[in-house]
Sequence to fold (135 residues):
Amino acid sequence: MGHVYQMVKTHRDSEAILELLTRYDLQTPFIEIEPVFERVCDWGPSRTLGCVGRLLIQILEREQRYGRVLYFIERCQSQGRQFMLPDVSRVQFYAEMALDTGKPEVARNLLVDADKRYGSLVNLQQFNHLLQKAR
Fold:
């Protein structure tokens, strides 16, 4: 991790991500990838953090641990509000879950600027309706 840290701190995120992806993938158990996420989170905002967060979210999705996914979405957003999910089709699901659990800011962060962030990949009318509920 020391080598990955050096790459992240010198803005060589692409190299850091490639190195991490040689060690960890979608088959990696959550219990192994969570400490990596925590470590990278300690280093501050970076593209590497976003990628590790998306990998973690995909693993949790596969395990159907949606509440934990929402927790990690919130953690990733705390490092960068424009954090994007690995699967755009799940944005509405997690925005609604965030609203249902009293986390309107998480929902807003997922939905804001949907036309620019997601374009025609989502139903903008539904997103705008949810965004109004989140305000």
Summary: The chain has a mean pLDDT of 95.
